[in-house]
Design goal:
Blueprint: H1 2-31, E1 42-47, H2 52-60, H3 65-73, E2 75-79, H4 87-96, H5 100-103, E3 109-111, E4 118-120, E5 123-126, E6 129-131, E7 135-138, E8 141-144, H6 151-157, E9 162-165, E10 178-181, E11 197-200, E12 212-214, E13 221-230, E14 239-249, E15 252-259, E16 262-267, E17 275-282, E18 285-291, E19 293-297, E20 303-306, E21 310-311, E22 321-322, H7 326-334, H8 346-350, H9 356-380, E23 385-390, H10 392-400, H11 417-420, H12 422-439, E24 446-450, E25 456-462, H13 464-470, E26 500-503, E27 507-510, H14 525-540, E28 551-556, H15 557-560, E29 572-576, E30 579-582, H16 584-587, E31 596-598, E32 605-606, E33 617-621, H17 636-643, H18 661-667
Parallel strand pairs: 1-23, 1-24, 9-10, 9-23, 11-12, 25-30
Antiparallel strand pairs: 2-33, 3-4, 5-8, 6-7, 10-22, 11-20, 13-14, 14-15, 15-16, 17-18, 18-21, 19-20, 24-33, 25-31, 25-32, 26-27, 27-29, 28-29
Helix pairs in contact: 9-12, 10-12
Length: about 675
């Protein structure tokens, strides 16, 4: 009898195991469900800032053979960008196939409507929670502010695998069927977008936002520290730092750096390797980072630059990849890499703390590291969709444009030919990289090379807030009507007598009653009247230097955007004439004595503030696209979905660049027939 019961129990247990295994198998099958006829694999290379006019010129000159081959056998067309032509705005439109009125991203900056204070638009910092300011209950984090669904979400929902590298709008990383390494919005260890540190033996006036630390050598040693993150566990958020020892040697032209138990020796003009550094918030909570140093000079004054401190990809304090161990796995395969979204330090170069040679060396090393990651994954991973967005070209153009614009206020040719040809040389390097990518693809894989916008000159800086003040739309508190106050974030503004204010790189907001914290402009007739007054006066505005118009056009938000998020857009969008840009001070709610100033800083190329048609991006494809007349960023999401044989959601405003469904059938190949032999690199197919 006992034996019978044991057999019965054993049989029941066996059946239970079989049932559980079946459920798990069905779940896995459901996760891997694919379209009945999966389309071609699609690889998208996003090159932030690649300019259609420069590409056309240098292809004709023979400098860009791989892009020229794509054009000859496939497709090349200028690509329409967004209003305004700003990276977060444009890449959000690329991701969703919708205009900013639906994505909710209108600028790098948004404002807290009740306090008027600027905030970063793409993401929101979410503070952590503690118990008695000692024990962490919830870590701080970030929230992605993108509205709408990116095309890679639809790809994932249909069971197709995606690889996403450095795509804007992917921080924090989304959980998809595939792998994600977050991009543009990832902060440094200080929760900024690139705060460096500078050490000098000479008296250096410290700017408010830049840690400039004076060092003294005693017996050839200087004891200092590396500033780290604010300790969110403490009520006063006191900054955490790590001791730093800098040593000279009597008979050697080198400097030794000791940080967190590691030693490296640098010569003048040399970058260090990675230092791994740990900041201890308390005995239980640590934040790990990576930092590099550059020795700018040793004698007579010692000047040492420390990069922003990057989140360590092996154990990042905030999630930067999906799955969570993907970043660590990449380190194991290709070595340590930068995690900060803004990967090269334009800020330090623009402020004079980093020289041009050092900047270029770091830019190339950054590109090579990204290239290594991309080629490794193309070779080793299976995928249906592969998207990688590279931002270094955009940054190089920003700070070296003055060397290709003879009309720049401070235009000059440097003695160093490498600096003079920095932009052209980097386009050539990217062309080589694109050629390597093509050789990693089989003949049926479709390659798209796209950019979010182009680039143009930034010769004169415009302060819209100063203009609003001088034209009576903005007022200061008593006693400040003759000279604007210094600072940013709308210092000493009399909101009860202010009708309009400017924020970001193209927007003017009215101080609307019932909307803003201290609004005075009533909705309806007064609102319409103030909008029209500002528009008319801006259109008539002339540059005192040569009498030319400053403003191309002023648009009402409903003229530009459609969707549920339009209510959060600036009331007026100002598009400037070529050569002008909103000043950095104005964009942050600050004032300057003059409304227009010469731009004499290294940051001499830009794409924001001007009319979008002045700065088109690029579209390349290794197929001939007949329907590529005036393509737009909004067209790319539906095009990619159709390439993958997936339905295009009705919410997407863009159109697929295919002409007919029959042409789609012509270019669809079975995945099982794919080879990686690199033959027929540019298939002559028609989309």
């Amino acid at each position: 009898m006992l034996r019978f019961h044991l057999k019965k129990i054993t049989l029941s247990l066996f059946l239970l195991i079989i049932l559980a295994a079946g459920i798990i198998l069905l779940y896995q099958i459901s996760m891997d469900v694919k379209p009945e006829k999966p389309g071609n694999r699609v690889v998208v290379l996003g090159i932030d800032g690649m300019d259609a006019r420069l590409v056309q010129t240098w292809m004709e000159e023979g400098s860009l053979p791989n892009l020229a081959r794509l054009k000859r056998h496939g497709t090349f067309a200028p690509l329409k960008t967004t209003h305004p032509a700003e990276s977060p705005v444009a890449w959000a439109a690329f991701a969703t196939g919708t205009n900013p009125g639906k994505t909710g991203i209108f600028d790098f900056l948004n404002r807290q409507v009740k306090t008027y204070q600027p905030v970063f638009a793409p993401t929101t910092f979410v503070p952590g929670k503690t118990l008695f300011n000692i024990l962490p209950l919830k870590k701080p984090g970030y929230r992605n502010n993108l509205r709408g669904q990116p095309f890679w979400s639809y790809v994932s929902e249909n069971g197709l695998k995606s690889i996403l590298l450095w795509c804007p709008e992917t921080f924090p990383p989304p959980a998809i069927h595939g792998k994600v390494l977050s991009g543009m919005d990832v902060p440094d260890i200080k929760n900024t977008h690139g705060t460096f540190t500078f050490y000098s033996t000479e008296p250096v006036p410290s700017k408010r936002d830049i840690p400039v630390l004076h060092i003294d050598f005693v017996q050839n040693k200087a004891q200092t520290f590396l500033p780290g993150p604010a300790n969110w566990l403490l009520q006063d958020h006191q900054e955490v730092s790590v001791p730093l020892l800098i040593e000279k040697f009597r008979d050697k032209e080198v400097l030794q750096i000791t940080l967190d138990g590691q030693h490296q020796t640098l010569s003048v003009g040399q970058w260090s390797d990675w230092f791994e550094v740990t900041f201890k918030l308390n005995p239980l909570v640590k934040i790990r980072g990576l930092v590099r140093f550059y020795l700018r000079s040793l004698q007579p004054e010692t000047r040492l630059y420390a990069s922003p401190i990057y989140l360590d990809p092996r154990k990042p304090y905030y999630p930067i990849s999906y799955p969570g161990n993907f970043a660590r796995q990449l380190v194991d395969k290709v070595g340590l890499f930068k995690t900060l979204g803004w990967k090269v330090d334009t800020w330090a170069l623009n402020e004079g703390y980093l020289d041009e040679r050092a900047f270029l060396q770091d830019a190339y090393e950054t590109l090579y590291q990204q290239e290594k990651i991309i080629l490794h994954l193309l070779k080793t991973e299976d995928y249906h969709l592969f998207v990688a967005v590279l931002g270094v070209l955009d940054r190089i153009q920003h700070v070296f444009w003055r060397y290709i614009d003879k009309n720049q206020p401070e235009a000059r040719l440097p003695m160093d030919p490498i600096i003079a040809q920095a932009i052209n040389n980097f386009y050539v390097e990217l062309d080589h990289f694109i050629g390597k990518v093509v050789r990693h693809l089989d003949s049926s894989t479709i390659l798209l090379v796209v950019s979010d916008h182009g680039m143009t000159s930034f010769r004169r800086a415009i302060n819209l807030n100063t203009w609003l003040w001088k034209n009576g739309f903005l007022r200061f508190k008593t006693g400040l009507d003759s000279l604007p106050p210094a600072g940013k974030f709308f210092p000493k503004v009399d909101w009860f007598n202010t009708k309009a204010y400017a924020l970001g790189m193209s927007g003017i907001y009215l101080n609307v009653a019932g909307r803003e914290g201290n609004g005075v402009v009533w909705p309806g007739k007064e609102y319409e009247s103030v909008c029209e007054q500002i528009r008319q006066r801006l259109i008539k505005w002339r540059d005192y230097k040569h009498g030319r118009p400053v403003v191309h056009q002023v648009l009402r938000r409903q003229e530009v955007y459609q969707g549920s998020e339009v209510q959060h857009a600036p009331d007026l969008i100002v598009e400037l004439k070529p050569g002008y840009r909103i000043s950095q001070v104005s964009s942050l709610g600050g004032f300057e004595k003059q409304t227009i100033l010469d731009n004499v800083r290294p940051w001499s190329g830009d794409h924001v503030s001007v009319a979008p048609e002045r700065v088109p991006g690029v579209l390349f494809c290794n197929r001939r696209i007949i329907n590529a007349t005036s393509p737009s960023l909004l067209d790319l999401a539906p095009t990619i979905l159709q390439l993958l044989n997936l339905p295009v959601p009705s919410t997407m405003e863009g159109r697929s660049l295919f002409q007919t469904s029959s042409l789609w059938q012509e270019i669809t190949h079975k995945n099982s027939d794919r080879k990686r032999d690199g033959s027929s690199l540019i298939p002559n197919k028609i989309l």
